[in-house]
Amino acid sequence: MHSMRVYLVLMTTICCFLFTEGQVVGYADSTKPDSTKFIKIIAADKFRRIKQDSAGDLNLLIGHVQLKQENTFFYCDSAIQNMLSNTIEAFGNIHINDGDSVHTYSQYLKYLGNTKIADLSGKVKLTDGKAILTTESLQYDVNAKIGTYLNNGKLVNKQTTLISKEGYYYADTKEVYFQKNVKVVDPDFTMLTDTLLYNINSEIASFISPTLIYDTTSSIRTRSGYYDMKKEIGSFLKRPIIKDSTQTIIADQIDFDKKSGEGLAMGNMLYQDTSNGISVIAGQARFNKEKKIVKAYQFPLMIINQDNDTLYVSSDTLYSGLLKKDSSNTNQKDSLRFFSAYHHVKIFSDSLQGKSDSLYYSAADSIFRFYQDPVLWTKESQISGDTILLRTKNKKADTVLILENAFSVNMTKEGMFNQLRGNNMTGAFIEGEIDYLRAKGNSESLYYLQDDEDSSYMGLNYAMADVIGMKFKDKELKRISWINAVKGITYPMDKIPADKKTLKNFKWMEAEKPKSLAAMIASPLKK
Q1: Which CATH architecture has domain 35-151?
Q2: Among candidate residues 135, 132, 204, the one with its CA nearest the CA of residue 161
Q3: How far apart are alpha carbons 415 and 403 in whole angstroms?
Q4: According to CATH, where is 2.60.450.10 located in the chain?
Q5: Closest alpha carbon to 514 in 353, 300, 280, 287
Q6: pLDDT of residue 332
Q7: pLDDT tens across 463-517, in order?
Q8: Cα distance between residue 1 and residue 137, in whole Å
Q9: Which CATH class is domain 374-527?
Q10: Distance CA 266, CA 297 (A)
């Protein structure tokens, strides 16, 4: 640029001696036939023709210079036009008006009329009336209407600023292709990537390389997709990650509405709530990031982190959100979760397994509510009824309430079944194992008597009472008690009738018990 300025000063000095005073308007070369590609002189304060042999004649123009080629107009302070090569070299306050659609400004211009390629430098600015592109050097193809910069540029469209090392502007489609160290700064977010296609009219950014979009509270990482800056919606591909201080959402594809927080995660979805120690994996899920809600389907599995005994929940559909804070409870956390699971529910942990049609859990009271034919297994014991309420404490089973048609079965080492049934039943656990069970209302018990010395079986006892309690130790029944209206009978081991070995509605459902994590879901877990 320094040598160019020296050249300009030198040419201006020469022109002072060679130029004739006066103005030139509408000058055209009379020795050349008019053609659409020939650059025409419209106006200049001063004009001079310099004859050259093989290099071609030069037109030297100074002051309010105006040139034209077809629908493209050139304005500058001074210019040198080569008649033979059909080129111009322009200096100072350059303005190119390309068919009134694109306006380009700079301090220096080298223009090739035959190919319609313009090389501009020095405070370059290109605008289509909506966005403004600035850089220090730009090549603009007037014919193809493509502008290229290779050494840092900035595009400003309304309140959004996009910068990159390299860029390609397409005037016809109003698109800019940014490459290398791309940064988008918007009042609501910042975007970092290496390759970005941006449409000025629609304000849609498309990316095909690792991209980070972030604001003060959350971030989105993706490798492919698009983001509509006007509507604040996007579709992100190739395992995108949406994350804030407590939530993480990952999937093969995520469609996301930033304004509402609503999103759809498709393919191998993972949702994590670190504040509550909950994760959900599924084939697909709808979520609201702002409300911290997730509804998962296609073989969903919820993982509840517990001390050395993680609990897994599977069903056809899983739904989870935050509980509304009880203003009267000053100790309640702001982020307490609830979740519901419905149809074909299964739960699995090392100490507890279960199944039901539906399930609801609230962190406010730490109660699992199992509905419609629920069954729970803990070690060698089975509990069933119409509804089961299981309260946990310190993330372990603490107490249980079985409502209507309560039934408990405990299998001995020898494969015999101690049984307890009643209208309702309560129980307690110690370290995840049953401590006692108490049946109330039309209660019945059936258990095998053992010798206190050698633990040999002596007979089978059947009893009825208002209330019946069973005490367990080391997974085995150790003591039984009856209260009010007690009736019963004991059969010696060798004289037990076949039809007296089980209570009414007895059913041992070991085959339906989830025995492993793999058995929890219908399709294999994907890593």
Answers
A1: Sandwich (2.60)
A2: 132
A3: 27
A4: 35-151
A5: 353
A6: 52
A7: 999 999 999 887 778 888 999 989 999 999 989 998 899 999 999 999 999 988 8
A8: 11
A9: mainly beta
A10: 10
